[in-house]
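Quick one, T. Sequence first:
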Amino acid sequence: MTQNHVTAAKMLTDDLQLQSIAKTSIDKTSVDKISINKAPDKSFDDSVDITQLRTPLKVDLSDIYAFLGCRTSQSWVEQALANLPLIIQDHANCEKKAAGTAMNLMFRYEFAYDLQCKLAQLVREEMLHYEQVLGIMADRGQEWQYLSAGRYAKGMLKHKRTFEPAAMVDVLIIGAFIEARSCERFAALAEVIDDARLEKYYRYLLKSESRHFKDYLALAQSLSEDNIDERVALFREVESELISSPDDELRFHSGTPA
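Structure tokens:
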């Protein structure tokens, strides 16, 4: 691998600030405990053209709702519908950041073959979704504009432990909540949005997005000698507070509009 490739990979980072965490020495067997399906996942389509996507009739989100500490408020949904261009672009940002997170983890845990397969699949999915959202923006005549990050990820990172491997465990738990909240909001928007193409697309995303949070939780548990339930409960409270409390900025993961 050339130095240029390594440099490019390190630039792929997200609001979780994975690059700030020192590389930890982790027993290879702990990561290999994760049960990974090596066969390609056929639950999503590979078309960038969203008109060609197959939308599932129904996706069971009961695990998502049970995992999260609260549901999205009606006021956030109303503000999102009134500011769709902003929500669409922030959605694109989220997909790109999610791909960056998975790519970063691929370099961090390159010794685990099964994990590499799962992360490679995740990068492929997130980048495909990114391309699809860019296509939606182009179809709508929406130009790309700078959009700053909201308080959501930073608010959770304040509670991240500073020693390894606990820091990485917390980062992965935070990632699980980000994925779960994304899925919950796609479902909330799909129920009421007055745009047939976006409704179909958001429903299409539910199948893949609804399983991502479990992937992150499985990895987090594999890196911890202790049960992670206590840490999950802590971040559930933090995440719920960020989602339900007043927020001055509207973002895909913002709180209740102030």
